[in-house]
Amino acid sequence: CCDVYEVILPASGRFHFKQFRCGDLNGAKWKDSMLEEAATLWDLRHPNIVQLFKICLDDGHTGIVVEHVE
pTM of the predicted model, to two decimals? Predict the structure, then answer.
């Protein structure tokens, strides 16, 4: 239901973009799932959990941006 991409921005560094692409774009299931995951990440602060940077709701690019980990 989702794909994860590594994004490299010269001025900002490396990030991961987790793109949600489940269900129809007007439905609420994929959006609820994404927002639930984002809310959980936002509330958790721990060295072993990736940090949430942004939620993207643009058509065709709906997902979350999180810190890069190796």
Answer: 0.73
